[in-house]
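To fix ideas, we give here one paired sequence and structure record:
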Amino acid sequence: MQNNGPPANNREIERKFLLKRLPDKLKGSRCYIIEQGYLASESAGRQVRLRKKGKAATLTFKVGRGSHREEREIRLSPKQFAALWPGTAGRRLRKVRCEIPWKNLVIEIDIYQGRHAGLVVAEVEFPGRVSCRKFKPPSWFGREVTGEKRYSNVRLANE
């Protein structure tokens, strides 16, 4: 089962972890280059993000912090993305994302590039709060960093 976005009620339920090591399953998994920039971000946890994943471009609005957030995403044409992208100058990041199926979920491994090279995190998005709470991380996961500002993409993009 592939979970390509937030549940139908526009809620994102996810947990984020550092990795002890990359999994063997990484070879042969689907990987994409992601370019991400922020048009706006507030200390109250509101964000407006542009993202290009492969050829697909989106504008995403997020509200909240931690494992449960509101999220709304809109697909953009390449022309729309190009028109908005300059507004993210100084608030960007680049990473390679690899998707690994795991027990009816998808683990997204982000390998950061540029000034954050060496940082590798895994995110798991859940269909509901119960599955989020019951999740048992694989042995190659390290410390959980869900909700830690230091590891938020918006913080990394603004550094």
